[in-house]
Amino acid sequence: MEKTVFISLPIEDLQTVIIDCVNSCLKNNKQMHNEQPTETDRWFNLNELCNYHPDKPTKPTVYGWVNAGLIPVHKGGKKLRFLKSEIDNWLKQGKKKTFAEIQQQAENWQPKKRELFKGISLKDIGQKKYGGKL
Questions:
Q1: How far apart are CA 77 and CA 10, in angstroms?
Q2: Strand 43-44 vs strand 74-76: parallel, antiparallel, or unpaired?
Q3: 104-110: long-range contacts at Cβ-Cβ below 8 A with a sequence spacing of 24 or more?
Q4: Where are the chain's structural domains?
Q5: For the chain, how far is it from start to end, CA to CA, in angstroms?
Q6: Which of 89-93, 100-104, 105-109 has the highest mean pLDDT?
Q7: Which residues fall within 8 angstroms of residue 53, CB to CB, at 6 or more apart?
Q8: Is a pLDDT exceeding 70 seen at residue 13?
Q9: 58 burial class (0-12, 13-18, 19+ CB within 10 angstroms)?
Q10: Rounded Cα distance, 82 and 62, in Å
């Protein structure tokens, strides 16, 4: 048997609940679409990847990247396949950071390290009191 609940809710609260539900549905729908390859996305074989990559690497170079786990790859049997969107993202990750980005990264890093090294002296490190590993 279904349970039905009736509540008294001011119109402003009802509007807020409806807006929150719609936003949640839109967010979930967007996430579902982002997980699937887009229509413009395509698969590259090894030759196509070598031609697409800006540096025009040789096949042995790409095999080396695959073996080292440096490049996103999908294996189908013995064939290597590369998704264009993943290759594009991988290429963008290799971009040189600006001075401002490096400075921000250093500022984010320092508080974490200060906490890690809090209460540890250089003498303790020299005596390998902490197993020589930090």
A1: 61
A2: unpaired
A3: none
A4: 7-36, 43-93, 97-134
A5: 61
A6: 89-93
A7: 62, 87, 91
A8: no
A9: exposed
A10: 11
